[in-house]
Amino acid sequence: MILDHSFPRETDYVKEKNIPLVIVGGTVEYHGPHCSYGCDTLVAEGLVKLLAKEKELMIAPTISYSPSSYAVGGRKSGTVHVPERAFEDYVYYVFKSMLYSGFRNVYVVIHHQFEQEHEMPMTLCYRTAAKRATMEYLEETLGEGWWGSESYSNYYEEMEGANDPFSWIKVIPTMSTAVQNATGYDHAGKYESSILMALYPDCVQLDRIDDIKHWFTESAREASKEIGDEMVRQSLAYLKEAIK
User: Fold this and answer.
1) Domain covering 3-151+164-182+234-242: architecture
2) Is the confidence at residue 238, as pLDDT, over 90?
């Protein structure tokens, strides 16, 4: 199911059955001369679309413009960078609307700057916005002092799993640390080029690798669909378990 193509009957079904609503957190970022600017977005989108063939999901619109930073390429590289504070406020409002709509099983899936699952600026924006939106939603709907009231004295027993409001919105990587260690992980090198090649072959042009020389793209010469297929397989196995 795709949220953009859905009607109230479909969204009511998703909310009633607590089916995952999945948002791809993407970027528009320079990935050398041989990988498309949407690399991070496409990897996450491609995996989520494959997962939707095996698991019931509702896919929400992708958020592409985000805090990419100019660490890889400067301002003239084509990277689109949205400052963190502005971006956090934007996704806060997205999350707040989803909570008021009644969605209680939201996942943001990110491939950008998630080495070893370290929390980089974009990931922190999503996670902080999720907690802000949840805290404010609870206070606005339950009243000030809701947590400390006697009616919530059984909070720790009741608010677990699906009942825990602080798990209503989860931010996860496309590849867990275990998967990264098993398959490899880089930026526009052998591994990222391979997984993009497996998912969107037209978005990798290895014959262009010498257009601009970068240390981080040299290993992309060894990229292959076979490596990418294995990365896809292991990433999907992880996502299938992580998105419940």
Assistant:
1) 3-Layer(aba) Sandwich (3.40)
2) yes
CB 166 within 8 A of CB 172: no
Band the pLDDT of 96: cuts 50, 70, 90.
very high
pLDDT tens, residue by residue, 151-191:
777 777 766 656 789 999 999 999 999 999 999 999 999 99
What one-character DSSP code corresponds to residue 24?
A: E
Residues 6 or more apart in contact with residue 142 via CB below 8 angstroms: none
Residue spans of the domains in the chain: they are 3-151+164-182+234-242
Give the phi and the psi of residue 233 in degrees, each rounded to 5: -60, -50
Sign of CA dihedral 141, 147, 149, 153: positive
E strand map for 96-192? 106-110, 169-173
**Sign of the four-CA dihedral 28, 31, 33, 34:** negative
